[in-house]
């Protein structure tokens, strides 16, 4: 099939692009200035393909200043979007460890002691301390708390109502079609019949942090010198119906540090009608080979500072997704002959301010404006022309300026949490002039074997026995290990504290179309057999990867929620020195069915 512009993915970045372009197409209808090249005489043919079964299935916590989004909708009260609320209160909270179970550095144990004393004086049981101020770089005052799903749906409705653009959910793009170093369109995933080839003058890639098309382009065209994508996190969240007696006001924004592990950050955002989004981020620099998000999220919810606000609540939906945390250091080639990159896969997420949605949106708007300029001038979509229009707009904007401030803000975490926080504070307060720079190691180089990580806490022989038992029983190790480290069992209440499997059912049922190929592939199974870490099993957000006695894990498409965390949590490089791990994360249909995440 021939089109003029073909788009991969519908997230906030593509929302910004299509909003900008479709308005111009609507204005231009009847005139010939933006006529189709693929079908002369017709308006421009713009097709957008989204992997998930609906455009509303994005996962994100979302508090945003919404500067760029507001600029795109002058006069519109964005707080009217379902589940949106104006930010009313912001807090940063240090959570102590009331259980003594987390693996804390000495300075944090001292901090916990100080928190305990202070709480005793105040007669508080919270094991926490609120920072007296929110650092300016974290501020979202004047912004909104959103549901990404509801926001995406609202944007898609605006775009579709112009009648100028087609958006096809449930249609994964398998790959870009590359001919003589030029992107000539895309090939859709084979879903029972051969995947169609859609040829276009411009392919817009906004497939998010782990999108297969973006990664294909990185492999084909390479990254700019010195750039790499080595920093990741998985964000896991729950949308919760708060108990009727909850005092949390809509627009409340809490960020937490310190618990359940020093490396794990938490958030709580409140929507209207007593609904909240709560979640944690587990980063790739958390060296535990049993890094898991689900159980840690439950312990975070049960923290004495948080739980009184969630007690009596009910799980509405649940989800998880990877964040690309390399920011400016992970920026790929933004444009080439026949293609352009926008959104998180183009390295625009700001790792200092913890903001990605507004940045993604703006990069889409900038490409939209650039494309309109080129179409009007009848200039082709070459690398040079995209540089002159799209990339130049981006370089002149706040996305670029702020991403430069943030570029090395989090390097310090490579050498410990304290250094990480200091580095962030320095970068944030000096506008990026002062940083604690350091080498960013590949995630697979950070994952020690179990024995090394639990040295001094669990004897090596016991670890081996536990691993063998879990492999035979097809279970993940983290539950058993966490209990040994002092984490208590989760007191399931059938409402909010439910098993991981129940969350999969309650939180947005997973479904995979029959007959398709697996999208998670263990490229060299022999590496799995000798892999000491098996982090892929432990991190898996959907319990879709299971250990076996042979050492080769199995993958169940029906359970995969497409979080992408296995891709960067695999402990083995594909080849010596390679950035790639032993897991391929390809295009696939299915995943979570929830428009609230
Ligand atoms: C738990 C969590 C909390 C977060 N909290 C915040 C926050 O508070 N504030 C903030 O600003 N940001 C936050 N973020 C980050 C934010 O969600 C992202 O920066 C933002 O969604 C990036 O937008 P995007 O359009 O570039 O990519 P995405 O939103 O990832 O959209 C990409 C789309 O492409 C689709 N796709 C992928 N591959 C294919 C394919 N092969 N074919 C077709 N479609 C494909 C995907 O299904 C997806 O819909 C959070 C993220 C998470 C996970
Ligand atoms: S996929 Fe990676 S982490 Fe998992 S067993 Fe294989 S080599 Fe190890
Ligand atoms: S198999 Fe699916 S659910 Fe599990 S980590 Fe990989 S992408 Fe996430």
- Can you list the strand order of the major beta sheet? 6-5-14-15-16-13-17
Count of β-strands: 25
Q: What is the domain tally? A: 4
N-to-C CA distance? 34 Å
Major sheet: size, sense and barrel closure? 7 strands, mixed
Q: How would you characterize the overall build of this protein?
A:
This protein is of the alpha+beta class and 597 residues long. It folds into four domains: 5-73 and 147-228 and 327-405, FAD/NAD(P)-binding domain (3-Layer(bba) Sandwich); 80-146 and 229-324, D-Amino Acid Oxidase, Chain A, domain 2; 411-440, no CATH class; 445-585, no CATH class. Helix content is 30%, strand content 18%. The protein has a seven-stranded mixed beta sheet with strand order 6-5-14-15-16-13-17. Strands 8-2-1-12-19-18 form a six-stranded mixed beta sheet. Helix 1 packs parallel to helix 4, helix 1 packs parallel to helix 8 and helix 8 (357-376) packs across helix 9. The longest helix has 20 residues, at 357-376. The mean pLDDT is 93. The site of flavin-adenine dinucleotide (FAD) has 41 residues, from helix 1, strand 3, helix 5, strand 13 and strand 17. One iron/sulfur cluster (SF4) is lined by residues 520, 539-542, 544-545, 560-566.
Summarize the helices and strands and which ones pair or pack.
Blueprint: E1 5-8, H1 12-28, E2 46-49, E3 63-64, H2 67-72, E4 85-86, E5 89-95, H3 106-122, E6 128-130, E7 144-145, H4 148-160, E8 166-168, E9 173-179, E10 182-188, E11 197-199, E12 202-205, H5 212-221, E13 232-241, E14 252-257, E15 265-271, E16 275-283, H6 294-301, H7 307-310, E17 314-324, E18 335-336, E19 339-341, H8 357-376, H9 383-395, H10 398-406, H11 417-430, H12 443-446, H13 450-453, H14 460-473, H15 478-484, H16 500-506, E20 510-511, E21 520-522, H17 525-529, H18 535-539, E22 545-546, E23 554-555, H19 565-569, E24 583-585, E25 591-592
Parallel strand pairs: 1-2, 1-12, 2-8, 5-14, 12-19
Antiparallel strand pairs: 3-7, 4-7, 5-6, 9-10, 10-11, 13-16, 13-17, 14-15, 15-16, 18-19, 20-25, 21-24, 22-23
Helix pairs in contact: 1-4, 1-8, 8-9
Bound molecules: flavin-adenine dinucleotide and iron/sulfur cluster (SF4) (2 copies).
